[in-house]
Amino acid sequence: MRSQKAMRSTIGAGVGVLALVGALLAGCSSQPDRAVASGDASDAVVASDFDLSRSGIDPKPDLQVDGTQLSIGSAGDGRFVDVDQDAVLLGVSMFNLKTGKALGQAADLPAVSVSFLRGLNSPVYGAIADALKGQRVGDVFTLVVPNVDGADPSSTDGSGAGDVVVIGTVRDSFQARAHGAEQAPVNGFPQVVRDTTGRPGLVLGDEYSSAGAPESAVLVKGDSNETAQAGDTVQLQMTMFDTSAKTRSAKVLQSTWDDGQLTQLKLDDSDDAFLGLMERTLTSVPIGSQVIVHVPTSYQSQVGDLLVIDVLARTPAAE
After folding, report:
1. Per-residue DSSP letters for 27-66?
2. Contacts of 319 (CB under 8 A, 6+ apart)
3. Do residues 162 and 59 lie in contact, with contact meaning Cβ atoms separated by under 8 Å?
4. Cα(173)–Cα(81) distance, rounded to whole angstroms?
5. CA dist., res. 315 & res. 7, Å (int)
6. How far is Cα 190 from Cα 54, in angstroms, rounded to an integer?
7. Beta strands 86-96 and 140-148: pairing type?
8. To the nearest 5 percent, what fractions of the chain are helix, strand and coil?
9. Regarding beta strands 162-175 and 86-96, do their DSSP bridges make them parallel or antiparallel, or are they unpaired?
10. What is the DSSP string of 129-181?
C-alpha cells in the first residue's frame, strides 16, 4: 500500500485543492477562436502576472457583470490548448470582485483533462474550461464569472452569490492520451484495446495468467523527440487491472480515465520494489508512449497485476 500512496501523493493533495474551491464555488498549430470575450470587469482587474502569494485585488463594487469575461494579462509562447484532447497544468487564484478578498488558497492544480474541468459541479471551473480555448502555454488570464453561489456570504440579498475573479496561468498543456506508432504485440501480455478517447481495456483468454508476463513492453512508441529521464517528474494516464477476474475484460481497480486527474510520478532512484519497477519502465520512454507493466504479486502494491500507462509529459529535474 505504501507504494500506491507514494505514487499518488501529489494527486491526493490536488484533489483536496479542487474539492475545497469546488465546494466553495459549488496541439493546435494556429490560434483557435476564443470562446470567451473580454469586458469592462475583466479589463479592470486584469493582472500581468500570476502570484501564488497574491492575497487580494483592487475591489470593484460598482461594476455590473452580465456574463463571463476573459482578458489576457500577458501572452505565453507555448502550444495552444486543445480543449477537446488536452490535459493542462494550471495555477489558479480566486477573488470576490466586489470586496477584492481571496476565495480560498491560490494553488498549482494537478494535471487534469479539460473535459474533467468542464464536468465538475462548479460554474467557475466550467468557465475556466471554456476560457482555455484560444489560450496557449504561458498565458496569464483574468476571468470574471458572474453570480456564483457561495462567493459572497455577506451579500445584501442573502443569496450568498457574488462575482468571482479568477487570475490564473497555463503552466503546461499536452495531449491526454498516447500518440505515436503502434508496436507489435509482445508474447505474455494480453491484447490491449482502446475506446475512442484512448482509454485502454484488456481482452483475456480463458487461461490467461500474468505470472508469465515480461516486466514491461511498449504498446505505442511516442512520436515526441523527448524521453523521460531519471530525476524527471512525469504526468501519466494509468489504469490498474486485476487479471484474476476471469472475464473478457479484466477488472479495473482504479483509472485516471475515470477520475480525470493524472498521476504524477518523480523518477527517483527508489529502494521500493514497485517504484523501482516504474522507474525502470518509464525512464528513456518517448513522451506520448503507452506501456504495459506486469506487477508481481510479491510487491504487495495493491495496484493490480497489470498496468497500462500513457506517458504524457515530463518536467526535468532542474525545472
Report:
1. -BSSPPPPSS---HHHHHS--SS--TT--B----TT----
2. none
3. no
4. 6
5. 16
6. 51
7. unpaired
8. 20, 35, 50
9. antiparallel
10. HHHTTT-BTT-EEEEEEEEETTS-TT-TTSS--EEEEEEEEEEEEEESS--EE
Gap between the Cα atoms of 196 and 285, Å rounded: 24
Strands (E) in 184-261, as ranges, are: 191-194, 200-203, 216-222, 233-242, 251-255
Q: 76 — phi, psi (to 5°)?
A: -85, 175
128-170 confidence digits (pLDDT tens): 999 999 999 999 999 999 999 888 877 666 567 899 999 999 9
- Which residue in the block uniquely carries the three cell numbers 442573502? 158
Mean pLDDT of 92-106: 95
pLDDT at 248: 56
Which of helix, strand or coil describes residue 238? strand
Confidence of residue 8 (pLDDT cuts 50, 70, 90): very low
Q: How far is CA 301 from the centre of its chain?
A: 24
pLDDT tens-digit series, residues 158-214: 567 899 999 999 999 999 999 999 999 999 999 999 999 999 999 888 788 898 899
CB 81 within 8 Å of CB 173: yes
For the chain, percent of residues with pLDDT exceeding 90: 72
pLDDT bucket at 25, cuts 50 / 70 / 90? very low
- Whether the pLDDT of residue 4 is over 50: the answer is no
Q: Count the neighbouring beta carbons within 10 Å of the beta carbon of residue 193.
A: 11
Cα 155 to Cα 314: distance, rounded to the nearest angstrom: 44
**161: closest CA among 17, 24, 60?**
24
Q: Mean pLDDT of all residues in the chain?
A: 88
The structure's pTM equals: 0.83
